[in-house]
């Protein structure tokens, strides 16, 4: 009976230790799971923060590029406007020079016409004396 009682005590002690070990194991597994869950959560939040930072940087770069493009476009349009203005000025200058040339030509022509009326007519060429020189035919 003592043996049986001792065996029973050992069995109970074994069961108690086994139960305690299982509880400790369960606690350890639960802590481990909780820790892993926290670690995953931390990683996800870190990734989200990095992603948000990258997106923000991309937006800044896009805005910067857009501003530079607008400045370039504005400068290009100003250059084109200046070029057109210069072309118009050159065209006006050419037109003015052409008009001045025409006016001068007309004035010179009128003067020549006036002088041509007042000039004496050359004598008619006689036979054998064209331009007042002997040709040797007659």
TrEMBL record:
Taxonomic superkingdom: Eukaryota
Domain (Coiled-coil) ranges: 2-135
Residue spans of biased composition, Basic and acidic residues class: 1-38, 45-57
Disordered, as annotated region: 1-57, 77-102, 115-138
InterPro entries the record matches: CCDC34 (IPR045323), CCDC34/181 (IPR025259)
Pfam families: CCDC34 (PF13904)
Listed PANTHER family: COILED-COIL DOMAIN-CONTAINING PROTEIN 34 (PTHR23247:SF2), NY-REN-41 ANTIGEN L15 -RELATED (PTHR23247)
Name assigned to this protein: CCD34 protein
Organism listed in the record: Leucopsar rothschildi (Bali myna)
The organism's taxonomic lineage, starting at the top: Eukaryota, Metazoa, Chordata, Craniata, Vertebrata
